[in-house]
## 1
Amino acid sequence: MSQTGSNKDVSEENLPSEQATAHEGAMGVPPRTKSLGEVADDPFADPGLPPHEPRVQDIDKRAAKRSERTVALLFTVSMLATVGFIASYVVLPIDKIVYVWPFGHISALNFALGLTLGLALFCIGAGAVHWARTLMSDEEHAQERHPIEAPPEVKAQVMADFKQGAEESGMGRRKLIRTTLFGALAMVPLSGVILLRDLGPLPEGKLRHTLWSKGKLLVNQNTNEPLRPEDVGVGSLTFAVPEGLEEDDHDFQKEVAKAALMIVRIQPEDIKDKRELDWSHEGIVAYSKICTHVGCPISLYEQQTHHVLCPCHQSTFDLSDGARVIFGPAGHALPQLRIGVNKDGYLEALGDFDEPVGPSFWERG
Ligand code: FES
C-alpha cells in the first residue's frame, strides 16, 4: 500500500545534496551516484530507498489468484470457527470435563469456546496480513519533511494517494476477499452477543433450596457412611452431605456446594442460643459450610471457643451462639439445619434450611 504521496513544494534546487539524492529515488529517478568528495563530507548520508523488486504475485496472475484464494479461505475458516463457538456454547454442558494434553482435565466448554474464538480472530488477522503482504501494492514512497499543517495541495495529494491505495488494495475489484472479510468481521461480534444469554433467566427459587428435606440422612462426606450421634465427638469437626448423592450426578458439584454441612458437638450447657439448642440433638449442631461472605468453604474449627474461621477473608463465626459473625466481612450468621435422630439411630434432617445458604444476594429478603 502506498505510504504517502509526493510533496510538490519541495524542489530539488532547495535541497541539500543527500536529500536531493533521496528525493530522486523517491520520485522513481535512479539515485545519483555520489562523488567521493560528497561521501567524505557526510559518511552517514541517507542511502535512499532500495530499488523496488516485484513479488511473484505482481507478475504472475495465477500466483495472485492463489493468494486471493488463501486469504478467502482464512476468512471462511474464521466464519466457521465463529459458528463452532456458538454451537459449542449451545450444545456443550457446562460441567463436562475432558482430558486435553498438556493441560490435563479441563472444562470441555471453556476449551471449545477458547479454541474457536481464538481461531476466528487468528484467521482474520492471518488473512489480513497475507492479503497485505502478497496482493496489496508494496511500493514504498518517501516524502520529505514538511510543516505540520499541510498545504491544501498536499492534502489533496494525500486524498488522491489514499484513493489510489484503496484501489490498489483490490477492495473494490476482489469481490471474493471483500465478501468473505465482511462476513468474518460481521460474525465475530456474534460470539460476544451470544454470551449475553448468561444474564438470564433469574434463578428464582434455586438459590433458596438445597437437597435437604425431612428424613434425609446425614452422610459423612469422607467415608460416605450415614452418621450416628456417637460418631460425632466433642471437639471434632465433621463434614456431611445428604444421602443419595452420587459423584457422577450431573449436578453433583453444585448440589454439594449448596448442601455441605459442618457438624460439631458442643456441651448443651455451652449453647447460648435457645433456638440452636432446639434444632440440635444432644449438643450436635449442623451448620452450612458455605461462608456467607462470598461462599468459600469453611474449614477451621477452634474447639475451646467453638469458633469457625473462613480461610478466605478470615470471617469468624461462633457456633455456640447461632453461628453469628464475630469478626470479618461476612454479613450474616451461617444458616443452621434442624436435625434429629431416626428410629434406626441415624442423624437425619428435619427439613431444609429455613434461609438461603451462602453469600447475600439482592432478593434474599
Ligand atoms: S468468603 Fe469467607 S470471609 Fe470471605
## 2
Amino acid sequence: MSQLTSRRAFLSAKVRGEDLSIIRPPGSVVPGFVDLCTKCGDCAKACPEDVIVIGADGFPVLYSDNGPCTFCGECAQSCPTEALELERLSNWPWRASLSAASCLSMNGVSCRVCQDNCEHNAISFRLQQGGRAEPSLDTDTCTGCGACVALCPVDAVTLERQTKPLTEANT
Ligand code: SF4
Ligand code: SF4
Ligand code: SF4
C-alpha cells in the first residue's frame, strides 16, 4: 500500500490532554501513558540502542533520529509501572511515512538510502519522467523500526501512528 504524506504530518489527536503524536516507547499504554509513567527514566537507561530519550515534558519518547528500535523489549522489562508492558510490544502502531515532496529521488537526485537500509524491503521506487523516482511504502511490511527515519539525509521520512488495524505480518 502506497502512503505518501506531507512532511512531519503528525496527528494532532489528543485524549484527556495527552498528545498522541508523541512516540512513547514500545509497549506503552496509549492513551493513559502520562497517568502511569513516573518519569523515572529507567526505560531510557535500559535501551541498548539509545533510542529512548527524556522529552521536554519529562516523559520518555522514542527518538528515531538516534537509530532503529530492535523491539528487544529491554525498555518494557525495566519499567516498574504498567506504563510499558512486554505484552503490548507486538502492538506497535507506528509506521514509516515518506514525503514525496522532500525526497531526493523525487527531485531528480539519485538516492536509495531508505530502501537500502530497510531490512524488511518495505520501500520501493517507481521510475518517473525526468529521471525522478517515486518512493512507495508498504505499511503491511513495515515494522516501524525507524531505521529509514534515522538515515534519510533530508528528513523525508517520519513515523506516523496508524489508525487502521495492522496485519499479522508486522505485529
Ligand atoms: S525495544 Fe529495545 S531497542 Fe527498542 S526502545 Fe525498547 S529497549 Fe530500545
Ligand atoms: S521506565 Fe516506565 S515509569 Fe519509568 S520513565 Fe520509562 S515508562 Fe515511565
Ligand atoms: S520503519 Fe523500518 S521497516 Fe519500516 S520502512 Fe523504515 S526501515 Fe523499513
